[in-house]
Structure to design on (218 residues):
């Protein structure tokens, strides 16, 4: 369970925040960023966590690197608040558990909110990051089709409907995609009737194999 909270020393006002994280979004980082989103009326914000400050700065200057950030929904809300603020917003990092009154009170508020069963009692509630807390529910993933064994296909009665295709996601666009594509389209499977193949074969004797890995003899 996570909870968030803020405390304004000048007015002795606590504020309880429900981060509403689920699954991979239920983290302390979400709670810290969620607390900052309700401070739109203040221009000086202090926290004892350095991670959200780095995330906020990165989202401001390099938003393209956060296109698929797990806490992107809350970061977008906070960016809109910062950009629409009539005054410059100052973010500070303070030492934790060092006797700073405002920070100690904010910790108590956050711990209290984390213990609450009814999240609706919070002063502010954040929206859920997607279906069942999944921020990537609307992303289209690359996938490959699993080959059906020939023996299973041949022994299947012809009057039965064809089995449903089974797909597996490709985890990234680098080594995982390269591994799959290489098994299907490596040079050994090239069309040997074209002029490129004899040209490639003619280059092989000229390649220095001790210093070059770009030529494969298979």
């Amino acid at each position: 369970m996570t909870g968030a909270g803020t405390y304004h020393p000048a007015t002795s006002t606590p504020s309880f925040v429900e981060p509403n994280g689920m699954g991979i979004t239920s983290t302390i980082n979400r709670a810290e960023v969620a607390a900052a989103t309700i401070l739109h009326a203040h221009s000086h914000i202090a926290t004892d966590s350095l991670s959200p400050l780095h995330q906020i700065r990165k989202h401001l200057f390099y938003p393209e690197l956060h296109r698929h950030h797990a806490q992107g929904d809350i970061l977008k809300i906070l960016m809109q608040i910062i950009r629409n603020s009539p005054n410059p917003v100052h973010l500070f990092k303070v030492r934790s558990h060092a006797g700073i009154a405002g920070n100690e009170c904010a910790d108590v508020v956050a711990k209290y909110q984390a213990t609450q069963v009814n999240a609706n009692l919070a002063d502010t509630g954040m929206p859920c990051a997607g279906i069942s807390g999944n921020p990537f529910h609307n992303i289209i993933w690359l996938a490959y089709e699993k080959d059906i064994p020939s023996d299973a296909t041949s022994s299947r009665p012809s009057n039965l409907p064809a089995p449903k295709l089974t797909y597996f996601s490709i985890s990234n666009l680098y080594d995982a995609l390269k591994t799959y594509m290489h098994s299907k389209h490596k040079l050994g499977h090239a069309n040997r009737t074209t002029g490129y193949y004899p040209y490639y074969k003619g280059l092989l004797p000229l390649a220095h194999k001790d210093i070059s890995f770009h030529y494969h003899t298979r």
User: Anything to note?
Assistant: Residues 4-133 form a domain with the Nucleotidyltransferase; domain 5 fold (CATH 3.30.420).
